[in-house]
């Protein structure tokens, strides 16, 4: 919390009193029958000074208590002149600013002497007793320019604190009245954020009010598809972008951020979710052209109103305020559309040879084609044109380039692509009459015309169980082949 700086016009140049409330003009504290005229009629303000009178009484005749009451009354008179009013809306900071001022002022009154010639001074004091009641009156003068400067300073603190909430809320109301619903929602959330971190007495009420206004603003926004069911070839751009329109009952909404979410295939063929933001144009329309798809199959792309920046700042609101935020987030979740699209691959149309060698845990070929069988089963079920060819005798020790070159020479007139690789046993265990076999390998697909590697599985593993060693090995190799086949079906261009 910031502390009010000590103002020079209150503290600088002051000399500690030799006694309380010495008279600056006469140097004495008058009492008795010579009641001064200013007790009933305070002096008129001049061009340089503003005059204040404070009065206090004590029914027990305690003059010191009456003086304290007069001091408080004098301070209250000056505070009223400042024109600031502490209410439920006043922040703690603004209250502290005013409290610090009045505390310093009260201390100054108590310590002022006739020698004081600064911005504030006690001009006269008068005390009397009537029927056992002690009455004390204090006349003070304040330098007008200094007082007006202090008035402006304190009022600015009050206004600044109120404006942090009421300013954005008022802007939101204005935008909502003109149909600018998205911008209105942003302003309401800004006001809600200010209220959530404010120390005003009714901050929770202001927070809830602005969150309710934000929900009404979001509710007024609609987003609709302008096209759907798009298609593209794998690794080829879409022929057109995904299009939607943002509007309200009043018409199109421009410059509205729209979050686009779509899928790509990352390393090791793992799905990755990409998020981008586009803005609606003057006609309310948005268009998004994703990068060429790197997978095969049916997918969806979604668009929704993006208020993430404004909402993120509210994530740390107190727990008691969080339900309002959750309700808004749920509403925003309904303000979206999904597009269906299909990614196709010409891989199904290309005749592809399969050349895979299964080897045992000693590195020797098993003479069986379990992996190739599983792979053929997976690809054939999805319409691929695949067939097996006899593996080269030196397949295990040959480079990829050599295998591709030999395949192109041997059967390039029959096949356009080749699937090749070696799969071996990486772990073999027996226990309780059951056998566990783990196989691993890296299977690749190459174009025989260009020599390019179109697909590489990376080293993959598959484990299978069996009642005997042979059944466990056969199951492991075949399941490995099916796993790689499914991956190719979704990845081959």
Automatic annotation (TrEMBL):
Q: Where is the signal peptide?
A: 1-24
- Key words, A-Z: Signal
Q: Which domain of life is it from?
A: Bacteria
Query: What's the protein here called?
Result: Curli production assembly/transport component CsgG
């Amino acid at each position: 919390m910031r502390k009010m700086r000590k103002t020079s016009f209150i503290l600088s140049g002051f000399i500690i009193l030799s006694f309380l409330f010495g008279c600056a003009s006469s140097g004495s504290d008058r009492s008795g029958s010579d009641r001064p005229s200013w007790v009933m009629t305070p002096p008129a303000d001049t061009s340089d000074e503003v005059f204040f009178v404070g009065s206090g009484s004590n029914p027990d005749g305690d003059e010191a208590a009456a003086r304290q009451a007069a001091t408080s009354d004098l301070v209250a008179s000056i505070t009223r002149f400042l024109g600031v009013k502490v209410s439920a809306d006043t922040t703690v900071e603004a209250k502290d600013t005013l409290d610090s001022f009045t505390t310093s002022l009260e201390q100054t009154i108590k310590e002022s002497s006739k020698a004081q010639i600064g911005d504030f001074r006690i001009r006269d004091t008068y005390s009397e007793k009537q029927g056992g009641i002690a009455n004390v009156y204090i006349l003070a003068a304040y330098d007008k320019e200094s007082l007006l400067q202090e008035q402006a300073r304190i009022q600015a603190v009050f206004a600044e604190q109120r404006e942090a909430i009421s300013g954005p809320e008022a802007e939101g109301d204005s935008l909502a009245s003109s149909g600018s619903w998205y911008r209105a929602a942003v302003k309401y959330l800004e006001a809600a954020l200010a209220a959530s971190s404010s120390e005003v007495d009714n901050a929770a009420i202001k927070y809830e009010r602005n969150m309710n206004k934000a929900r009404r603003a979001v509710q007024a926004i609609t987003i609709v598809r302008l096209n759907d069911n798009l298609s593209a070839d794998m690794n080829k751009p879409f022929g057109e972008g995904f299009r939607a329109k943002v509007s309200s009952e009043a018409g199109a909404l421009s410059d509205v951020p729209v979050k686009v979410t779509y899928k790509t295939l990352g390393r090791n063929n793992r799905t990755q979710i990409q998020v981008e933001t586009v803005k609606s144009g003057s006609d309310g329309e948005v268009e998004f052209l994703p990068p060429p798809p790197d997978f095969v199959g049916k997918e969806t792309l979604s668009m929704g109103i993006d208020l993430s920046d404004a909402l993120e700042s509210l994530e740390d609101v107190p727990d008691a305020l969080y339900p309002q935020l959750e309700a808004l987030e749920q509403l925003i979740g309904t303000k979206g559309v999904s597009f269906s699209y299909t990614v196709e691959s010409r891989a199904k149309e290309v005749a592809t040879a399969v050349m895979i060698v299964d080897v045992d845990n000693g590195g020797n070929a098993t003479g069986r084609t379990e992996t190739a069988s599983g792979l053929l089963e997976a690809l054939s079920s999805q319409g691929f044109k695949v067939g097996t060819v006899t593996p080269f005798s030196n397949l295990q020790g040959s480079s990829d380039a050599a295998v591709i070159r030999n395949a192109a020479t041997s059967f390039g007139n029959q096949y356009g692509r080749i699937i090749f690789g070696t799969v071996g046993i990486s772990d073999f265990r027996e226990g309780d009459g059951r056998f566990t076999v783990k196989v691993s390998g890296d299977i690749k697909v190459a174009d025989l015309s260009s020599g390019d590697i179109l697909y590489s599985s990376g080293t993959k593993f598959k484990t299978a169980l069996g009642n005997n060693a042979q059944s466990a090995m056969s199951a492991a190799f075949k399941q490995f082949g099916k796993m790689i086949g499914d991956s190719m079906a979704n990845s081959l261009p």
